[in-house]
Design goal:
Radius of gyration: 14 Å
Shape: elongated
Mean pLDDT: 90
Largest sheet: none
Order of helices and strands: HH
Number of strands: 0
Low-confidence stretches: none
Number of domains: 1
Length: 60
């Protein structure tokens, strides 16, 4: 059950970062969707790093 909360958190984070990236790309009128691609990727790496830190604290 606790992993369902993490999945929901990750889903909402990706959804939010996609929306923000799309907004930034539209605002600056980039030819390619740079922020739409890179914000979720960066957010995923940060989330996975936080996940590893949190899980390692609970083990020891």
């Amino acid at each position: 059950m606790k992993y369902m909360g993490m999945a929901t958190q990750l889903f909402l984070l990706m959804l939010g970062l996609l929306y923000i990236g799309k907004y930034i790309d539209a605002y600056f009128q980039f030819a390619k969707p740079y922020f739409t691609i890179f914000l979720p990727v960066i957010g995923l790496f940060i989330y996975l790093y936080k996940l590893v830190i949190d899980l390692s604290k609970k083990d020891g």
